[in-house]
Amino acid sequence: DAYNKKLLSNKNDLETVKKLINDMKEANIQPNLKTYNLLAGSYMRAGKQEGVLETLAEMKQLGITPTVSTYDTLLQSIRAVGNIPFIMDLMEKDQIPLTQNSYEYLVHSMVWNKRLEQALDILDSMKERKIRPTESTYSHIINGCIDVDETELAYKFLKDSEAKSMFVPRSAYIRTLYACARSHESNVEELWRKVTGALNLKPLEGLCMEVLNYACRAGKPDLAADVLRVLTQSKITCKEQHFAPLFEAFISNKDWKSALNIVDVMVNAKIEPEPTFMEPFKNAIEKSASDLDDAYMAIENLREDGKKVHISAFNTIVSACAHLGDVKRAFAAVTDAPKLGIQADIETYNAILDACARSHNKEIAEKVYHEIKATGLKPNADTFFRLIAVSCQQSDYEDAFGYLEETKENNIVPPASAYVLLVRKCARERDSRARIAMEEMEVFGYPVTNELKKYVETGGMAASKIFTKRPRHFAGGKADI
C-alpha cells in the first residue's frame, strides 16, 4: 500500500511510476491489481497505448484478473482503431461489460480517427442497450461532426444534449457556432444569442468576423449590429472590415438609409470608407431607376434627421446616375448638393463626366468643366480623360487636343487610354496627328502595339480585339493598346 500511495501521487510521471514498480520487484513486493491499474493509467496519460497492452499481458501472466477500470484505461488510450476488435474480444473473454465510460472512450477513439459513422453506430448501440451516454460522449460526437463538416448534425446533437438537460461544454457551443457561421447555416443567429446571451460568453474577434460575414450573406442586419456591439464591449477597435458585413447586410435588404447610417457611424469613429467599401452600394442602386430613387430619398431623409451625408455616398449615387445614362439627373444632383450639406469634390464631377461620356453629351461636359474651374477644384487624370473621351465622340474633336495639352499643363501625365482614343479617332478621320500622338505615347513610356499601328495605317479598318472589346465605362489609366 505504501508503494501504491507513492504511485498514486506520481501517476502523471511515467518514468517515476516505472522506477517505483521496479523498486517493488527488487524488494520482492508483488504488484497487485491496484498497482497495475495505476501503471496502466500512467501509460495512458503518457499516450503509450502499447505500454497499457503490455501491462494487461503481464497482469494475465501473473493471474491478476483485469477489471472494468483496467479495460476502461485501455480503451481510453486507444488511438489506432484496428486494436478495438482485439480489446473487445479480451473483454468478452474476461466477462467485462461495456460501461458508460467504455462507450465514451470508444466514441472518442472513432472521432479521433475521423470515423464519424462508426461513432454514431456506437451511440445507437448504447441506446439499444439503454445505456445513457455521458456528457463527454455527446461532446465528442459534436466535435466529430464539426471535424468532418457535418455542421447540421453537430447542431442537432447540441440541441439533443440540451433537451436531455446534459451539461454541454462552452467550447462545444463556440465550435458549433463557428462551424455553422462558416457553412452559412440558418441556426447561426440562435446560436449567437445563446453564446452571448444565456452563456454570457465574449466571442473572440475571429468568431465575430465569421458571424458578421454570415449576417452579410443572409441579409441579417440586426445580427450584424449585435456582433459590432460585442466587439465594442470587448474593447476591440472596430475597423472598416468590421462594418463592411453590416453595410452589405442592409444593402441586401434594400435598407438604404440604415446602410448609409453605417457610413455615418464609421466617419464618426474616424474610419474613412475606402472607395471599394462603397462598391456593394453602387452595384445595388445602379440596377434600376427605382432603387436609385429610393437611395437618393434615403440621403435626403438622413439630412432631415440632422445627420451628415458623407461625400462617398453622394458620389456613389451620382456614379449610379452615370451608369444608368441619366446625365441630366447626375448634374441636377450636384446642383442640389449644398441643400444636403455636401460640397462636391472632383470625384463628384468626374462621375458626371462619366455620364456625359456614356451619353456623348458634350454640352453638359463643358458645363461641368466650367463649374470645376469656377469652384477652384483641381482636375485630375480621370477628369481630362473623360473630357477627351467626350470630345472624340464628336465630329468636331479639336477640343480633345486642347484637353490633352491642359492635362500636361497641370503636370499630369495623360493616361495611355486617352492617347488610344485620340489615335483611333485621328486614324478614322485620316488625321495625320495620329502618328504624332503615337510618338508622344512612346515619349511617356507607353508601348504602341502593332495592332494600333495597323489601325492607323488602314484608316481604322483593321479588326482587332482591342477595338471590338470596348470598355463599358470610361476610366483613366492603362488601356489595352
Describe the 3D structure.
InterPro entries: PPR_rpt (IPR002885), TPR-like_helical_dom_sf (IPR011990), TPR_mt (IPR057027). This is Pentatricopeptide repeat-containing protein-mitochondrial domain-containing protein. It comes from Basidiobolus meristosporus CBS 931.73. The chain has helices spanning 2-9, 14-26, 33-45, 49-61, 68-76, 84-93, 100-112, 116-128, 135-147, 151-163, 170-183, 188-198, 205-218, 221-233, 240-252, 256-268, 279-285, 289-304, 311-323, 327-336, 346-359, 362-375, 381-392, 398-409, 416-428, 433-443, 450-457, 465-468. It is mainly α and 481 residues long. Among the domains are: 254-378, Serine Threonine Protein Phosphatase 5, Tetratricopeptide repeat; 392-481, no CATH class. The chain is elongated and about 110 Å long. 42% of the residues are buried.
